[in-house]
Amino acid sequence: MAISEGDLRRRWSEGQPCHGLWSALPGAVTGEILARTGADFVVVDLQHGARSEAELPGVAAAITAAGSVPLVRTRSSLFPDVGRPLDLGACGVIVPNVRDAEHAREVVATCRYAPAGSRSIGRFSGGAEDPLAIVMVETATALEDLDAVLAVDGLDGVFVGPGDLGLALGLTGADRRAELRGVLSSIVARAGAAGVPVGVYAHNGEEAAGYAAEGATIVTAAADAATLAQAMAQHLRVARDRPGPERP
């Protein structure tokens, strides 16, 4: 059954987890395949993925036709980089490198038409009148200002980038993993207490389920590029390790 950005907003506000997939690989077919898995949403990654903005109308349309919600991680938090995906079919944005609450307010305003915001009229294909506005917590300053970020009016959620946040806090390496995990759990708890939907980038379903058990509702279960590589490598191992027929 098809789901809309309004359904995601409602379910998140009710504390219900929604499950999605992360997409870095190019092509509308990729988006359609991911959406057809039953994902509630598919995040098209323009910051680190292999897609370009020119692909978005086709990719977003394919995801929508397959019954899922197309979201986009934008290239940056700049006004045009947030607005263009919304004009090209995205039903919401996940905006990286947000510095603090004031910056988060600017991002939300970029997603809303006047008089509520500063979004420019010019939607080209698909998309939404009232898209989801989600900011990433992945800088030390955003973490320091987290309570104020969570109080930003019109914000639909926060999404944590563990890799960049770990770098920003100096919590990289295996010996600091537990400490970083504690920080992530704290963010999830604080967002939940404030009634703000929250998610954490996860590398696999087990990790995603762990965040959901703590209260995360924006649940990304896997990323296409990494999952494809892992699955193909596993098939190769099986093919190479299985003994061949005995020869006389």
TrEMBL record:
Family: Belongs to the HpcH/HpaI aldolase family.
Keyword Cell inner membrane: no
GO molecular function terms listed in the Swiss-Prot or TrEMBL record: aldehyde-lyase activity; metal ion binding
GO CC annotations on file: cytoplasm
Organism: Blastococcus saxobsidens (strain DD2)
Family matches, as Gene3D superfamilies: Phosphoenolpyruvate-binding domains
Segments forming domain HpcH/HpaI aldolase/citrate lyase: 20-230
Protein name: Aldolase
Pfam families, per database record: HpcH_HpaI (PF03328)
Swiss-Prot/TrEMBL keywords: Lyase, Metal-binding
